[in-house]
Every structure is written in structure tokens, then in C-alpha cells.
Design a protein that fits this description.
520 residues, globular, 19 helices, alpha/beta, 4-stranded antiparallel beta sheet, TIM Barrel, 8-stranded parallel beta sheet
Length: 520
């Protein structure tokens, strides 16, 4: 049996829910780190859950995808709690006069971004002018904490200058900026920092707000015995501070354009493969530095969460390289990545019990499996996939090992109800016979299967907990619009659902009385 100790577990079984903060209830058009987040953590506790999984928490760009952020280190300004800024005196009631009427179940990013950015800038202006009020936010304690954050965050200045540069050049990607900032010398960078000083300071400030709020929320969850599973995309966006400030680490030409880009060949999600468009790593350069950038990135994420799912794990073994300019991913080629050497170096930093989950879905060959198992990383098992395949397969619960993570579906899948309504009759028939059921209450059938499995971790998307159909799907791979917009309402976190989840978590040994950390 697989070695469970590799994941560094306190006990054998976890149960949790996948819900990104943007999906939480709230009054301002998007879920945030305020009362809706705390209400969700309370819901987890009452439901007997001890895990909360999020998507990447980064500052999103065009397309709103958390897997294409502007930075691997910066947090998402759109989920900063405005209510907390009110409490701190940085926002006033009159700032909200004329606020749009928001859809409680969908995020309207086009209108939201302008609205929330305007309020964050007002908060920053008041922070810069402490004489206008005597709120806590202008206190010496608050300002010292801000100054310490800026001092400790070695990624912050590059991020702030990059974002200020985007504003200065009307949102244009960095490779279309003038050369003095597109590829600056240290002297030029210092000149731009001075030229855009106010804008740079604004971006530093909003990152402080994000990290202050996230740290408090994580502490609240951890104190209730709830651990957080984070998510790190293996690739970064072309228009990101990561590429702009580390060009030599990527397969780029002298003008800042990628030679090859990331994607995957045809698979379950797409007949023509998926063309992601991210620049690929120049692994030879990473190796020279002992993978310093990557190790900083993972250590940073593990300061925010307790476990870390690595998206597209197989890319550390081989990656699909598509010639830049191709319209599909069909012409790509597999190229070798330094997986064993990289994780050996990472293990020296994090220790043997690296709290990493390998996203091992799609086309996974034996070499990628060997890499995963060499370091004891748990892989993922998706119950929907078990019944898409009419043959015997590794996604069926009777084939699980303990060192894996079971999901009913992921953020890339349809909801379980939507999937069951649309899948082939052969799949529905197999599922009905497998569980000896008529298929009614299908979401709870798969939730029970997930929680009753031997998998060390069982994680259920919030949409499946609520029994929602396809309208609540979070992401459709290969589709550029309409994703990442779903939200749920506070009243949907019902006592009936809490009791049903708690009963299952307790019945199948995933709820541990005394999970909560008692304050001394």
C-alpha cells in the first residue's frame, strides 16, 4: 500500500469542499475575503469538513482566469473585502452611493473591475492622507505593519512597477511597451519607479490589504481545524511580471515573443487539444540557478495554504511544445523536463513530507506516474471519469489506493447533475448498476461514494453539494468566455446540507472529534 506519510498527514482521512473565494456570497458583485468567506468556513466546520480547496489566488488579467495571473506571487485585488475597508475607515458610506445592482449568482467582470478598482483607489488616497480621519488604518501600528510587509516581500517592487507600467501604457502587454521599460536596466527601472511612484505605491498597498485579509482568514480556518488546499499553475502568463522580470528563464526571442508555447494534445476536454499560449520554460537556465525561482514560488504559496495542488503535474516530466503562431495544439511535440532533479532540489528545502498533490489527469504516461510515485505525491481520481469509460478503469472507487484525492468533479468539469443529464446512456447505465440506484439524487450518490472511498482526501465542488446543474459550471476548457463567474447565495448553505455532510463525514471516518484547535 502507498506510503501515506509522504503527504505529511496528521491522520489518515480528510473531507473538504472546493470553492473559490470569488464564488462566495457578498454585496459587491463578487465573493471576497469578508463575511461570506467566514460564513463558508463556519459552514465547513458545522458540516464536519476539515479541508477547503481554492483555485489560484493571483491577480487575474484578460479572461479572468485564475490560471493566467499577472504574477505568481501577488494576490487578487478583486477579493479584498470592502466591508473591512469600511471598518478600517478607508471607505465611507457615501462611497457606495449609486452602486450597481449585482447579480447574486453571476460575476459581471466588465462592470465589477471598474467599480472595485475605483473604491480601492479611494481607500489608498485616504491611507496617504491620514489627516482626513482618525481611523485605525491611519494608526502607527497599521502603517508599521504595511512597511514591514513591503520590506519582507521581495517580489513586491517588480509586481508594483509592472502593474503601474501596464496602467501607464493603457493596459498594453509588456512586450509592446517602449524599450526603456520593456527591457530596463537597473538604472532605467529606478527612473520608472520614481516616475510612477504614486501608482507603484498603490499596487504595494492593495497587496498589503490582500495579504492582511487572507492571513486572518486562513488563521480563522486553521483554528477550526480546517486546512486549505492551494493551487499553482505550472505555467505563467506571457503578459506577467514573472516573464517580464525573468526573461532568460523562458523560451523567448530577443523581441520578447515566445518561440514555443504551452498546451496539451487532444484529450477528454478537446478534440484538437488545448492551446494555452503560455511561454515555456528554458529549463537549462532554471537548472543553473538550482531552480531558485520555482522554489521561491512554491515556498511562497505554502505560506498561504497548507497543501498545494500542482496543476498539469506531468509538465514537470514532459511538456507539449507548440510552435508560436499555430492556431491549434495539434502540431506540438513532447519535450523532456527535469522532473526528478527539480523535486529532489525542492525536497531538500521543504523536507521529505512535501504537502503536494499532483494533478495527473489527461494523457499520463508511465514516466509521469513514476515521477509522481517516486516522491509519494497523491494523484487525483475523478468519479465522473469513472463512468465516462465503459471499461474497467482506475477512476472507479474499487481501484483506489489510499494515497490519492477523490473528487466528484473538478473546476474544469460540468457539475455532477449537469454531467449526468448530458452523458451517454451507457454511462448512466453503468453508474446505476455500480451503485444499485435509479440515479435520482445523483449528486449525493457520488458525494457518498467520494467520502466512503479509501482515498486519504475527498473533495467535493460546492456546486455538487448544492445539487446544481450546468448553469453553475465554473469553467469549460477551450471556451474563452463565460467562465469563472458562478456564485452561490448565503441561504443555500442550509442546515439540512450541513447535517447530511456531517453524517457522512462522521460515518466514513473523515470527521475527527477534536479537529478544532483549542486556544490556550
Amino acid at each position: 500500500m502507498a506510503d501515506n506519510s509522504k503527504l505529511g498527514m496528521d491522520y489518515d482521512k480528510y473531507a473538504g469542499i472546493l470553492a473559490h473565494p470569488t464564488s462566495f456570497p457578498g454585496h459587491y458583485g463578487i465573493g471576497d475575503l469578508g463575511w461570506g468567506a467566514y460564513a463558508f468556513v463556519d459552514f465547513l466546520e458545522r458540516s464536519g469538513m476539515n479541508l477547503w480547496q481554492v483555485l489560484p489566488l493571483g491577480h487575474t488579467g484578460f479572461g479572468d482566469s485564475p490560471y493566467q495571473p499577472f504574477s505568481s506571487f501577488a494576490g487578487q485585488p478583486l477579493i479584498i473585502s470592502l466591508d473591512e475597508l469600511r471598518t478600517a475607515g478607508l471607505l465611507w458610506d457615501e462611497d457606495f452611493w449609486g452602486m450597481p445592482q449585482w447579480d447574486a449568482c453571476r460575476i459581471e467582470y466588465g462592470q465589477l473591475i471598474g467599480f472595485k478598482t475605483g473604491l480601492l483607489k479611494k481607500a489608498f488616497e485616504r491611507f496617504q492622507n491620514p489627516d482626513i480621519n482618525d481611523a485605525y488604518s491611519t494608526s502607527e501600528e497599521f502603517r508599521k505593519a504595511y512597511e514591514q510587509f513591503c520590506k519582507d516581500s521581495d517580489w513586491l517592487d517588480d509586481y508594483a512597477l509592472f502593474m503601474a507600467g501596464k496602467d501607464y501604457f493603457d493596459g498594453a502587454p509588456w512586450y509592446m511597451w517602449e524599450d526603456s521599460l520593456k527591457k530596463p536596466t537597473d538604472k532605467r527601472k529606478a527612473e520608472w519607479m520614481e516616475k510612477l511612484a504614486d501608482e507603484v505605491e498603490y499596487y504595494r498597498f492593495i497587496q498589503y490589504l490582500f495579504y492582511r485579509q487572507w492571513t486572518a482568514l486562513r488563521r480563522y480556518a486553521n483554528d477550526k481545524g480546517i486546512k486549505i488546499v492551494g493551487d499553482v499553475p505550472i505555467f505563467v502568463a506571457w503578459d506577467s511580471v514573472d516573464v517580464w522580470s525573468n526573461k532568460k528563464l523562458f523560451d523567448m526571442d530577443a523581441k520578447g515573443y515566445p518561440k514555443t508555447v504551452a498546451g496539451v494534445p487532444p484529450d477528454y476536454f478537446s478534440e484538437k487539444g488545448q492551446l494555452w499560449g503560455n511561454p515555456l520554460y528554458k529549463w537549462s537556465e532554471h537548472t543553473k540557478t538550482g531552480y531558485e525561482w520555482w522554489i521561491r514560488r512554491i515556498r511562497h504559496q505554502l505560506e498561504l495554504t497548507d497543501f498545494l495542488r500542482i496543476d498539469h503535474f506531468r509538465g514537470f516530466d514532459k511538456f507539449w511544445a507548440v510552435p508560436y503562431g499555430d492556431e491549434t495544439a495539434l502540431n506540438g511535440k513532447w519535450k523532456k523536463a527535469p522532473g526528478v532533479d527539480f523535486f529532489t532540489c525542492l525536497e531538500k528545502v521543504l523536507g521529505e513530507h512535501m504537502p503536494i498533490i499532483a494533478e495527473d489527469l489527461g494523457q499520463i504516461d508511465q514516466s509521469a506516474i513514476d515521477l509522481r510515485d517516486r516522491f509519494g505525491f497523491p494523484g487525483m481520481r475523478i468519479l465522473q471519469f469513472a463512468f465516462e469509460n465503459p471499461q474497467e478503469n482506475s477512476f472507479l472507487p474499487h481501484n483506489y489506493i489510499r494515497n490519492c484525492v477523490c473528487y466528484t468533479g473538478t473546476h474544469d468539469n460540468d457539475t455532477t447533475v449537469g454531467w449526468y443529464q448530458k452523458c451517454y446512456e451507457t454511462s448512466r447505465d453503468k453508474l446505476r448498476r455500480y451503485y444499485s440506484t435509479d440515479g435520482s439524487d445523483i449528486n449525493w450518490i457520488l458525494i457518498r461514494s467520494c467520502l466512503s472511498s479509501v482515498a486519504n482526501m475527498a473533495i467535493i465542488p460546492m456546486q455538487d453539494v448544492l445539487g446544481l446543474d450546468s448553469w453553475a459550471r465554473l469553467n469549460t476548457p477551450g471556451v474563452g468566455e463565460g467562465n469563472w463567474a458562478w456564485r452561490f447565495r448565503q441561504e443555500e448553505m442550509s442546515t439540512q446540507i450541513e447535517q447530511r455532510l456531517f453524517e457522512m463525514a462522521n460515518l466514513y471516518g473523515r470527521y475527527q472529534p477534536g479537529d478544532e484547535q483549542v486556544e490556550e
